[in-house]
UniProtKB/TrEMBL annotation, chain A:
Keywords: FAD, Flavoprotein
UniProt keyword Flavoprotein, yes or no: yes
Residue spans of biased composition, Gly residues class: 23-37
PANTHER family documented for this protein: D-LACTATE DEHYDROGENASE (PTHR11748), GLYCOLATE OXIDASE SUBUNIT GLCE (PTHR11748:SF103)
Disordered: annotated segments: 15-38
InterPro entries listed in its UniProt record: FAD-bd_PCMH (IPR016166), FAD-bd_PCMH-like_sf (IPR036318), FAD-bd_PCMH_sub2 (IPR016169), FAD-linked_Oxase-like_C (IPR016164), Oxid_FAD_bind_N (IPR006094)
Protein's UniProt name: FAD-binding protein
Domain FAD-binding PCMH-type: 1-166
Ribosomal protein among keywords: no
GO molecular function, one term: FAD binding
Automatic annotation (TrEMBL), chain B:
InterPro entries named in the record: FAD-bd_oxidored_4_C, FAD-bd_PCMH, FAD-bd_PCMH-like_sf, FAD-bd_PCMH_sub2, FAD-linked_Oxase-like_C, FAD-linked_OxidoTrans_Type4, Oxid_FAD_bind_N, Vanillyl_alc_oxidase_C-sub2
Name the UniProt record assigns to this protein: FAD-binding protein
PROSITE patterns listed in its UniProt record: FAD_PCMH (PS51387)
Keywords, ordered alphabetically: FAD, Flavoprotein, Oxidoreductase
Cofactor: FAD
Domain FAD-binding PCMH-type: residue ranges: 47-225
GO molecular function: FAD binding; oxidoreductase activity
Amino acid sequence: MRPETEGQLADLIRRATAPLSITGGGTRPWPGEGGGTPLDMTALTGVTLYEPESLTLVVRAGTPLETVRQTLAAEGQMLAFEPVGRDGSTIGGVAATNASGPRRVQAGAARDAMIGVRFVDGQGEVIRNGGRVMKNVTGYDLVKLMAGSRGRLGALSEISFRTAPLPPVTATLALPDLDAAAAIPALSDALGGPFDVSGAAWLPGQGALIRLEGLAASVKARAADLGARLAPHGRVRQGDDAAWHLLHENIQDSDADIWRITCRPSEAPAILSHLPEPISLDWGGALIHVRLPAGQIPDLPRFSGHARRIAGAAPALRPAADPLTARLEQDLQARFDPRGIFGGQV
Amino acid sequence: MQMPPPDPSVLSRRQAIIDALNAALPDAVIQDPAETRAYECDALSAYRCAPLAVVLPRSTDEVSRLLRLCHDLRVPVVPRGAGTSLAGGSMPTADAVVIGLSRMTDVLEISAPDRLVRVQAGRTNLSVSGAVEGLGFFYAPDPSSQLACAIGGNIAMNSGGAHCLKYGVTTNNLLGVTLVLMDGSVVELGGPMGEGPGLDLLGVVCGSEGQLGIVTEATLRILPRPAGARPALIGFDKAETAGACVAAIIRAGIIPVAIEFMDSPCIKATEAFAHAGYPDCEALLIVEVEGTPPEIDEQLALIRDIARRFDPVEFRESGSDDESRRIWLGRKSAFGAMGQMGDYICLDGTIPVTALPRVLAGIGELSRQYGLAVANVFHAGDGNMHPLIIYDANAPGDLDRAEDLGADILRLCVEVGGCLTGEHGVGIEKRDLMSVQFDPADLEAQMRVKDAFDPHWLLNAAKVFPLDVSAPRRDRRLNRTADAA
Ligand SMILES: Cc1cc2nc3c(=O)[nH]c(=O)nc-3n(C[C@H](O)[C@H](O)[C@H](O)COP(=O)(O)OP(=O)(O)OC[C@H]3O[C@@H](n4cnc5c(N)ncnc54)[C@H](O)[C@@H]3O)c2cc1C
Ligand SMILES: Cc1cc2nc3c(=O)[nH]c(=O)nc-3n(C[C@H](O)[C@H](O)[C@H](O)COP(=O)(O)OP(=O)(O)OC[C@H]3O[C@@H](n4cnc5c(N)ncnc54)[C@H](O)[C@@H]3O)c2cc1C
């Protein structure tokens, strides 16, 4: 099934009698995801509206992420949350997974840039929420509810984003001598000062990485101030701007399992002490990616975030929500999809 | 403004309900009509109604006990922060118990390494920044009511302020909440990056106007204080030119922290009131940028070059703290100044920035049609307009006419692709206009969320949704009440 219009999408869902599994580029299903009849979203493409001076882009869900990137770059703009994806990733997949890159520490996640959605619920009803303006408190914010929902409540057909100007200049500072645990205080220090940091990460072999973006003189002045502030943590030198792309591309499928852990940065050192060297740290230490032998479940100390297996040989493992949250989620799912058409989704 | 009639089965049990509240939380219940009067309305003071009782709990546990009690007795509840809502969000009904968070003001945790603060929901917005100031941090969302309004109210209304072009609104700065559901159960939503393991329930609770649960604690993202900030004032001889200049600044890739717009009726009123020394012109912009002095110079130089292309009547760049203060003075006294001109209704629609010329012209047209003056002051960077309709409360029919004009202006906002409210919320004020912006299926989808969180529709139920649309659900509750009685 490959609908070309929202109307066709609604028809297909209305007539469906068995579970569907919504796929964009299919670049990032979780292990075990996708049991139902494939509902391929990649024909539902096209930019509906782009107004650079209003910082607004409205785009159909099946549009390739790369097309969106190019459309925006041609006008000197971008999606500030720095979506990560492989060749073929769709903008709907990005929205449905809330996929957000390093700039999240400064500009927020995909959900924060999403200002409107159109989607088709489990009964085949088209629902609109939000719109094309960035400041809007008219009714409940279902846009956020749909962001990261992985198609559990409906199939996204169109999404409105707030765009941002592409920064003219980028500088990366590196503290190459720091291991992952030692990087955390340095990253916190950088994020805790008035430097407007747009990336704070760690990569094996590269150490702690901190990014500054903006106008030329401003970046230069901030880099000097920040370098001085970080000196007590160790040697500071110019880092590699390309590292920011590597950071997420590094997370490849493999025979081993990949775990994604979110936590408070202050909790990260204790968590890291229970794990092998991570693949990467991002968001100032709040996001840890680590590779573990297939099927192994790490024994972590209590912390305020959650750990989940997102790729590899073993099935996806998602932390059990507390019973109340689980009840609310099930209740919502039952109301948006009473026939369980999207039941195949994780 | 219509409100549903109070539930007679609740009114008839009034004393028993108050006794039960007193038994559950002695010292926290206000029942004397002289004292409940303070809770009759919020900042939308044209509409008032005394509640059945007011309770002021001190902890999450107390809120939980109260809600379970009201749930079991099927008594409607209206949550209340500081009562500064401009949409009637915290206005009670005669059959409702108001649960006020004003005693819950503690700071529970400050973490500089994690860049967060955890507070009880009754704490005022400004005092959150106050609590973290010493560490060099601030809490970004800055509604103009920030001295008075509470974080719980901010979360319920997803409030924003002048600086949200750069820093976003409440939802972009909220990491987690402790939420008490109507049945008394307590749930933690959110996580270190604002995300839990499943659906983004935090995202939908934010902005749900006190209809899904009572927020008792909030974890908020805090940001390092920028080194400094400096405004420029730019005057134009046409409103459209000011609009075009805003578009050009954003188009050039500059995102100032604030771009404020005032039109000539507003400038004149403000000058007569505050004597800020604004130029005599058709429209002006206040553009503020942040950073270290060299960063500020770099940004303002670019803005000056852009502004020149639009032939401004005046370009005034602040050179000192005192000049900055004077540039902001007029903007900050605008609402007070308009109050001198007469009674006013303050609207709150958002439009795409590109529709600015069309909407300003349309507002002028409608203002002539209705014979009522309208002045405009607003956050131009994000299109959030606040047209002020001046009327005379003592002239018979004037208020009705002003309200009709207001509704027409909001319809115009929706027509050009905007929305009915950018920051004040729907409440009772814009409830019946919701059908202008949303189809029945869109409203139904939102009400399903309420069904999941509050199946009996006991929390703030006469708000947000047009009464005829929510009636079947509210009636279902009344029938159940009848069963209970
Ligand atoms: C190397 C790599 C690194 C990544 N790192 C991160 C990361 O750090 N953080 C992060 O959040 N993500 C990350 N991702 C995930 C990835 O960015 C997104 O999942 C991807 O962009 C999804 O695009 P897609 O079109 O291929 O979606 P698919 O893989 O096709 O689908 C992904 C999920 O979204 C649902 N879905 C897809 N389209 C729709 C729609 N229109 N409506 C409703 N549901 C839909 C699917 O049902 C499925 O549950 C990473 C991916 C890769 C390849
Ligand atoms: C002079 C003035 C200027 C203003 N400027 C702005 C502005 O710039 N930007 C802006 O966004 N708003 C502004 N407002 C509107 C108002 O201040 C905001 O909506 C504010 O967030 C309300 O907070 P409060 O604590 O006063 O809430 P209340 O008025 O007490 O309640 C507002 C709503 O929130 C609910 N609620 C309150 N507390 C809780 C809780 N703990 N849990 C669940 N629900 C709760 C209530 O039921 C009600 O629906 C302004 C108001 C005034 C009077």
